[in-house]
Amino acid sequence: GSAILKFSGQCLDCVFFCRCHNLQESLLSSASGYSNYRGILNWCVVMLVLSNARLFLENIIKYGILVDPIQVVSLFLKDPYSWPAACLIIVSNVFILAALYTERRLAVGTISETTGMILHLFNLTSLLIFPSASILTVTSITPVGGVLSLGTYTVLFLKLYSYMDSNKWCREIRHAKAKRMTRSYSCKYITINTNVSYPGNLTHRDMYYFIFAPTLCYQLNFPRSPRIRKRFLIRRLFEMVRGNDQKHCPKILVVCVFQWMVPSVQNSMKPFQVCINTETLTVPNHLIWLIFFYWFFHSSLNFVAELLQFGDREFYRDWWNSETVTYFWANWNIPVHKWCLRHFYKPMLRKGVNKFLAQTAVFLASAFFHEYLVSVPLKMFRLWAFMGMMAQVPLAWFVSRFLNGNYGNAAVWMSLIIGQPIAVLMYVHDYYVIHYGSTT
Ligand SMILES: CC(C)(COP(=O)(O)OP(=O)(O)OC[C@H]1O[C@@H](n2cnc3c(N)ncnc32)[C@H](O)[C@@H]1OP(=O)(O)O)[C@@H](O)C(=O)NCCC(=O)NCCS
């Protein structure tokens, strides 16, 4: 028996050595189905850093170390900047509970749909006005504290709007069911594979789970992951607080990139230097944005999701392959895009609004929130963020009309690499002029 095995083994070896070619595609051709380009991505980052190292070194030699990480940390610890912002965040619970209690009343029918709607709209409007009025009047609040608290309130606004809409849909379905509408329609939201059905969801626990969950869209019975994977959790935590698992350290990189940016920003205050320095600011600004993307959309949201066993981890899609501007906006920030589709865009389309008008309305709302999140904390109304967002509409038309494939993709990258720093520099310039009085 062993002799036969030995013989057949030798035959297999023989076949192996004789036939060294197979029918196969080269890895870089799309037909190969190969998709692991992680090394190439790292190569891009290394090339990006190396190609700009000259500027970085020149700045160090000329201006010395301007950003000292230890000084930054001690400043954060000494200055209790977070207090007014933290108080604002604690107060936001009032609005959360107001939404829950309004929904409870609506569910039992002690208030009418119209009264409920008025109460919700009052609550939602206060959610936007109260923090901005507080930030504009409280002088001790810093721009960082302002952005954090206003960001929290904006997220709450979107979440509570979704909470109001989703519970209203549940009531409509309950009503339809009561009128013996078709079973398939009535089942859509409530009864298939669910643990909780309306109005059993109107509890503090359910509400606060939604508030902390990494989504802006409410639904009954979120998909849940079976368990908390401790190793996954620790890896995401490690990436959030220190760096990622590939020995890169985004935080140090951010400090380096700032070190690289500061002289350019200072120079940009001089008249006629704005254009030149926009060019030197683009790469560090873009790197910070890429690092932020990974830190927030991958590490942080996955960390929170893992902790809460929140099952839907689609926080971003392959926006880096965008060949149109609309593809980019529909794929880089999925929580916001999902909210826009579910609560704004599709309802408008269903009411018969034309597609272009509906898209423009979404970008208008998005432009308002971008401006709100920048202008109020900086206490400076300039509309740069608003115009930057609204410029996406003609840009989207231009790219889809005249460019496609790799050219379209390059145009999207160009708008990200060049467009953003221009808006950032406009705010930096105006902030500097307001607080230091001169551009020279
Ligand atoms: C405006 C916006 C919502 C358009 O998204 P889009 O995906 O390009 O829109 P589309 O026209 O392709 O349609 C999307 C959906 O609407 C549906 N739809 C299209 N026409 C419809 C109609 N007449 N009636 C009902 N649904 C319709 C599509 O079937 C599609 O549904 P699906 O997602 O379930 O497949 C998107 O660009 C966006 O989210 N912009 C703002 C993003 C933003 O500001 N982000 C901020 C990040 S900081």
Question: Could you explain how this protein is built, in words?
Answer:
Keywords: Acyltransferase, Endoplasmic reticulum, Membrane, Transferase, Transmembrane, Transmembrane helix. This is O-acyltransferase. Its main location: endoplasmic reticulum. It is a multi-pass membrane protein. InterPro entries: MBOAT_fam, Oat_ACAT_DAG_ARE. The protein has 440 residues and is an all-alpha fold. It has a domain of 174 residues. 71% of the residues lie in helices and 0% in strands. It contains 19 helices and no strands. Helix 3 packs across helix 12, helix 6 packs parallel to helix 8 and helix 16 packs antiparallel against helix 17. The radius of gyration is 27 Å and the shape is globular. The termini are far apart. The site of coenzyme A has 17 residues, from helix 14, helix 15 and helix 16.
